[in-house]
């Protein structure tokens, strides 16, 4: 990828959850496509300074408040760009198209990716994903009753995305338990990913697949249809590249810290995580020896959030 143009992008989220999008003018690159507002850095500007200036100039809002959402690069336009995307939850003023562009407020699930600028789906994935991703431990560690009780408590504690992981179960037994997790998750409007097959995913009503990169390499195309999630377990830059090539919705990158489940594996540390994660065009969770208290560090190193087994697994005794 050649010289990369840095662009700040703002996703304004209204109190009712709707997002502001703007239509590219006829005299601009990408004319007719819809986008989240923003623009290129000027000399000496940081991401937030650029974003504040661009939003005031383009749509007339000031005093913005928000946080970084995701940073990534892509070359699917006329030149390579690095998008510094912020979620903006508060601002002053009423948004309007101050440069003659049309604007529109829409729910995230009503947005048509084909009508949006290329790579906007990466931003939408980051918006839809929660900060915490629970990966379940083996059922044998607690027994079925205790394991399902812990699932219930995790959902009650706010977990909204989880992966059912247990390599020791037969497909039949795995499907039985995963189905029970899906039934529970639907009540909490949580999403469940499985790690076996697309057919099993459909059979039990799960929301997507989570595969290791090595298994994904054996498939020439994305193994699930759009509308279902595809997650990938990555351990190096090649794994993340493979995930992007198969249009994964997100990945986990591990191990950031030492873990009991992989005692012989050298941890990446936060510097290693950020070096491998780079500006790859998909949301990436930090995984390995982490818990909710590590979220700020994860976000500071361009992670979507934290994925964990023990870190999010509630106690069931007492």
Structural notes for this entry:
The protein folds into 2 domains: 5-121, Nucleoside Triphosphate Pyrophosphohydrolase; 132-312, TIM Barrel. It has 9 helices and 15 strands. It has helices at 47-59, 120-128, 144-156, 171-188, 198-204, 213-216, 237-245, 269-277, 295-300, and strands at residues 5-12, 19-23, 34-35, 38-40, 62-74, 81-92, 103-106, 132-135, 161-164, 191-194, 208-212, 229-234, 250-253, 284-287, 305-308. An 8-stranded parallel barrel has the order 8-9-10-11-12-13-14-15. A 4-stranded mixed beta sheet has the order 4-1-6-5. α3 runs parallel beside α4 (171-188). The N and C termini lie far apart (56 Å). The model has no long low-confidence stretch (mean pLDDT 95).
């Amino acid at each position: 990828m050649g010289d990369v143009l840095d662009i700040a992008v703002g996703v304004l989220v209204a109190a009712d959850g709707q997002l502001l999008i703007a239509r590219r003018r006829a005299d601009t690159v990408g004319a007719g496509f819809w986008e989240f507002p923003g623009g290129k850095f000027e000399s000496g500007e940081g991401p937030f300074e650029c974003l504040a200036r661009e939003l005031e100039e383009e749509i007339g809002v000031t005093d913005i408040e928000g946080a970084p959402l995701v940073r990534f690069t892509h070359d699917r336009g006329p030149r390579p760009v690095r998008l510094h995307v912020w979620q903006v939850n508060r601002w002053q003023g009423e948004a309007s198209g101050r440069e003659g562009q049309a604007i529109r407020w829409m729910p995230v699930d009503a947005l048509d990716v084909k009508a949006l600028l290329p790579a906007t789906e990466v931003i939408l994935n980051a918006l839809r994903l929660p900060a915490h991703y629970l990966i379940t431990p083996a059922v044998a560690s607690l027994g079925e009753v205790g394991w399902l009780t812990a699932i219930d408590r995790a959902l009650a504690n706010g977990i909204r995305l989880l992966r059912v992981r247990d390599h020791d179960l037969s497909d039949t037994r795995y499907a039985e338990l995963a189905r029970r997790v899906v039934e529970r998750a639907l009540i909490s409007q949580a999403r469940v990913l499985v790690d076996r097959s697309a057919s099993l995913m459909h059979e039990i009503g799960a929301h997507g697949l989570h595969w290791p990169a090595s298994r994904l390499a054996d498939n020439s195309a994305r193994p699930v249809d759009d509308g279902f999630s595809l997650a990938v377990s990555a351990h190096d830059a090649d794994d993340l590249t493979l995930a992007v090539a198969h249009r994964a919705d997100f990945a986990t990158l591990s191990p950031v810290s030492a873990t009991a489940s992989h005692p012989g594996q050298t941890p990446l540390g936060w510097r290693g995580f950020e070096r491998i994660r780079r500006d790859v065009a998909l949301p990436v969770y930090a995984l390995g020896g982490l818990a909710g208290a590590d979220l700020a560090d994860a976000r500071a190193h361009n992670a979507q959030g934290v994925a964990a087994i023990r870190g999010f697994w509630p106690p069931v005794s007492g």
